[in-house]
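Hello forum,

I keep getting stuck at the same step: I have a sequence, I want structure tokens, and every attempt I make locally crashes halfway through. Rather than fight my setup again tonight, could one of you with a working pipeline run this one for me? It's a single chain of 491 residues.
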Amino acid sequence: MKLIRINQTDNVAVAVDKIDRGIRIDDLEVIDEIPMGHKVALKDIREGEDIVKYAQVIGVASKDIRKGEHVHSHNMHTKLSGELEYSFNQVSYTDSKAQSPYKLYGYRRNNGKVGIRNELWLIPTVGCISSICKDIISRFKNSHDLKDIDGAYTYSHQYGCSQMGDDQEDTIKVLRNIAAHPNAGAVLVVGLGCENNQLEPFIEGLKDIDPKRLRYFNCQDVDDEVSVALDYLDELYETMRHDRREPIEFRDLVIGLECGGSDGFSGISGNPLLGRASDRIISYGGNVILSEVPEMFGAEHLLMNRAKDRKVFEQIVDMINRYKQYFIDNRQVVYENPSPGNKAGGITTLEEKSCGCIQKGGTSIINGVIDYGDTIKETGLNLLYGPGNDLSSTTALGSAGAQILLFTTGRGTPYGSFVPTVKVATNSLVYNKKRSWFDYNAGTILEDVSLEQACDDFMKKLAAVINGEEKTRNEEKEYKEIAIFKRGVIL
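Reply #2:
Ran it on my machine without issues. Output:
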């Protein structure tokens, strides 16, 4: 199979491998060299005519395109603009339920939340003390074997001071959500003392945490912050090290969806795989969050029509238009995407990227919209207001309650968030080249494996990771980071 035509209404197809000029495939003579993952015209397309892929318009021809010609940035462009008016055309749906065949185990916390890891976390309230916190964690790990927990980590960030308005509130909410995350069996919160994100009010917002599993102090209030921190970590470690897994259900879980370094196969292999898995998880009673709002632009109407009711539809409209206004307020064009790597991988316009991106959310009805820094409230599939940037988006997903992330990429990235991040390759070439980065190869879907077969295999992998039987690559390498979304002024 050299070409994939996703829908019979499409006027372009995607090259599975590089296709040389002059090759004939059925009735199509390829008149340009077509790089792997790139598009080829299946018919003559006139200047100004729509380019169609996924049965959706992904752009417009900027010049006449001949049948068999390479279709990319040199001969097509976006049709996107600013804010739009939307109408609610709700799709019909059934609430599919199924019995999960998987036995899952996790850590039930006193507040009713469930973690899939039992880790000890050190959270700095402000970026000024990130280096101290790294030193403290390094010393602690060097003096303990930690075989009876899943690890000890600190999460550096740049903020907590010199911020104003929403940015300061966002920082506080995200750091609180991380401190209260159920993947942490215990947490030490460390402040400097003079920052805007003051320790006492920050701790007051953590009333949901078992006090036996929380310690905190300001570095400026003690003579030796390292020894104080190490003593607190010892206490917390002794409290949590006896925790044991017990049976849990998918309804106890929140799964976050992400794609980064996308290519022409992201919407054909990796993202449809996550979409199928997402539908199964939701049918088992689980919860899923889809974010990356600017990578919904051009496909947002498809999500809006899946809203469970008009109220949710209006929330989605507000989410989309607020993010477009964020671009406009900062004097940026709404369609400033895809990235150079996306384009090299075969993605030409934001509409094309978006049509592939939203497939991670499967076909389930959207039950809720979560604002940045807030946590999930509705069951099933939710949308989250947040950026497309991998670091900021995955942090927002974990902060919203996701205990695990499913992350597709066609270009490859070693990045991992503060929760287990299952990295899925969209093609076998990048998977085999960067095996140390990837947990699963969805490239087999382009070869000889059906989407259903791949989903069966992937769900077994997911269950093993949830149960702690397997670590993700980011866990093995301790590639665990956070990044907080910044919207305004720094003092």
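The radius of gyration is 23 Å. If your local run keeps crashing, start a new thread with the error log.
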